C-alpha cells in the first residue's frame, strides 16, 4: 500500500486518476480463518480490475493469504 501511495504521489502525469489498490477479496469469515491458521472455505474472488495501478504505478500485488500470514 505504501509503495502505491508513494508512486502515485511522485509519478508525473497522474493528476486526477484514482487507483484501486486491491487485487482479490475474501469474505470476513475467510480472513478470520486465515488469521487463525486455518484455510478459508472459499478461494479469493478477483472482483476488481487493478490493471491501471499495475500499469501506471508499476506495483505488483501479493496474495492476501501471504499478507495475512505475515500478521501472525
Can you characterise this structure?
43% of the residues lie in helices and 0% in strands. The chain has 72 residues and is an all-alpha fold. It is elongated, with a radius of gyration of 14 Å. The two termini are 19 Å apart. It has one domain (2-70).
List the helices and strands and how they pair.
Layout: H1 2-10, H2 28-35, H3 51-57, H4 64-70
Task: Give the number of helices.
Answer: 4
Q: State the low-pLDDT regions, or none.
A: none
* Average predicted local confidence, pLDDT: 85
| N- to C-terminal distance | 19 Å
DSSP helix fraction? 40-55%
Order of H and E elements: HHHH
What structural class do helix, strand and pairing data support? mainly alpha
Proportion in β-strands:
under 5%
Keywords:
72 residues; mainly alpha; elongated
State the gist of this model.
With 72 residues, the chain is mainly alpha-helical.
